Amino acid sequence: TDIPAGKTIALIGGGLGNAVLFSIGKALRAAGNQVIYFAGYRNRDDVFKIEEIEAASDLIVWSVDKREGNTAIEPTRPQDKTFVGNIIESMLAYARGELGETPVHLDDVDHMIVIGSDRMMSAVKEARYGALKPYLREHHEAIGSINSPMQCMMKGVCAQCLCKHVDKETGQEYFVYSCNNQDQDLDRVDFPNLHARLRQNSVQEKLSSLWLDYLLKKNVA
User: Fold this and answer.
1) Which among 10, 12, 72, 174 has most CB atoms closer than 10 A?
2) Taking the model in full, what pTM does it have?
3) Helix (H, G, I), strand (E, B), or coil: what is residue 221?
């Protein structure tokens, strides 16, 4: 991940994406950046390594999906916020001042780093030109860590990780090796194509999960 210096950065993490972002956030702060961190989770019990996330940010907006049994994540620092809803809704609530004082404004953000499911990253991409547009700086960079299917991990050998991009100005389509660099321009990634690629692995993933469950039960027995 490229680490800029002297900027205002928004980290936007969904679920396990937060396991990657807190190390990136620490490096960003060490380089003199101001970091606002939107940390989203499906369930309240999914939250982990709170101290590391706090060390990676100047301000955190915690969010948890509206699901039965979910309760708000309690901040432990006075500047941090909490919200019950999805991550786009939490960003809107913060930008509108509905969560209290906003010492770091969304329109201060020069650079976004988004890590989560393909659906979550696609939602952030679209919201930047929709609901979030009035609250964002007109010219800002947005990078997504793309979780393409991968096999060889040898930097462009097997081509399993090819990710379709579309030039937003010309409409030209082309492909990149995600194993060479997972951090890609959010505006160029063809997320419907990526989702279809990931679905190709779903049967294998379900079978592997069932087999693992079987082995664990057998071992316990």
Assistant:
1) 12
2) 0.87
3) coil
